[in-house]
Amino acid sequence: MTDETARPIDEGAPISTPDHAVDPVAGAVGAPELDDAAVERALRAGLDDFELSPEDQALLDAQGALSDDGAAQGPLPVVAVVGRPNVGKSSLVNRILRRREAVVEDVPGVTRDRVSYEAEWGGRRFTIVDTGGWEADATGIHLRVAEQAEIAIDLADVVMFVVDATVGATDDDEAVVKLLRRSGKPVVLVANKVDDQRGEADAAMLWSLGLGQPFPVSAVHGRGSGDALDAVLEVLPDVSAHGAYAQGGPRRVALVGRPNVGKSSLLNRLAGSERVVVDNVAGTTRDPVDELIKLGGKTWRFVDTAGIRRRVHQSRGADFYASLRTQTALEKAEVAVVLIDAEEPIAEQDIRVVQQVIDSGRALVIAYNKWDTLDEERRYYLEREIEKELVQVPWAPRANISARTGRHMDRLVPAIETALESWDTRVPTGRLNAFMGEIVAAHPHPLRGGKQPRILFATQASTRPPRFVIFASGFIEAGYRRFIERRLREQFGFEGTPIEVSVRVREKRRR
Asked: Per the annotation, does 508 bind a ligand?
């Protein structure tokens, strides 16, 4: 049965209530003498005549109390993992985390930004920061990568300096040693790629660096990593002296979009510093990078993600894992800011990114970047593209910004706050059912086969995003469900959040 066969819904038609449209209880919904609570009680009583599953009953009995994220925790101590390219820093981080979190590939320079993760060892929790490879004579993008590693050292409480034991100390390693000595931070020297006892002699040669005992480790196999971590815990403070990677508390905002639309530039502009490596090369960011930023009198946790260039299963190598981590970052976020390059026509990739946010159930804000470069003609055509290509998200708040110049950045926070408020909105059950009764009375579901499904009861099952469950006596067509969703938005707002409407068809109990 297709939506085209349904009777058109004329929202401007006068309210009429055919005899076959609504049951006596629902038909009385619009009566002024009944308040919302009375409507809810009457409809709940009517449900007793229908077969309900234990899941239905549990949903109806739920009070709908929302759990807190909890109070913000204090800043955990920070351990930075540094070293020159391709010595196994990310592999060591994955070993410490006991999961494949950091992007790893047998090619130098896969990690480019400093990326923080929460880790635990010996009952102690701490933040571990993976960094890009440090090179003394780096140029171009590699110079920016090295700068991020230096910032990680400045913000760390302890540094794990990783050296390839099979190669020995190089000139770059000696340069890192000088950098570490200037920082004055405690250093644990890790001699990586020592897969068996034969390699321990190579590790012993690293005493020459003057950083104390080198700990022989095989990040790939896990050999010796526990001893190195024990040494870290001996010099690790209980609380970070910097608090740059404090966990919990602030609302989490993911910056997503296809490659090279300006996500990293936006994060740098918001942070007021060169927090993330920015380059004209598409795909510069590979790991999600998060930063605590104070905007509009509040602290937010912004997460820069890798550009979504194609479907994950079509990606390869580092791009494949970067795509997976972007999806993970999106799932951990509460609201996503989708950046679209206003200079270029809206592409299929842009639409796919928006859909990915909707599918993940996150609040949504669309930001059109590089707005300052548009002339009147391009603005006209962009508006037509938005009407055509993004017709499915007219409810998403919009911000026209410039990450390069900072223009209209003040519009971003109100849009994010609006989306999050809608994402958290809960409609009282009594008010929801009174509203549903008004809808059904004005625009009953079309007849199908001489029968008309009745809406028996509605409840909001959850928030984040808002999910509504409708109990009905028969199948509710997709077109009518979309009509209900549209009217819900008109009545209760929900600007900036996807909403879900599901229907449970229940039959009357047999006598």
From this structure: no
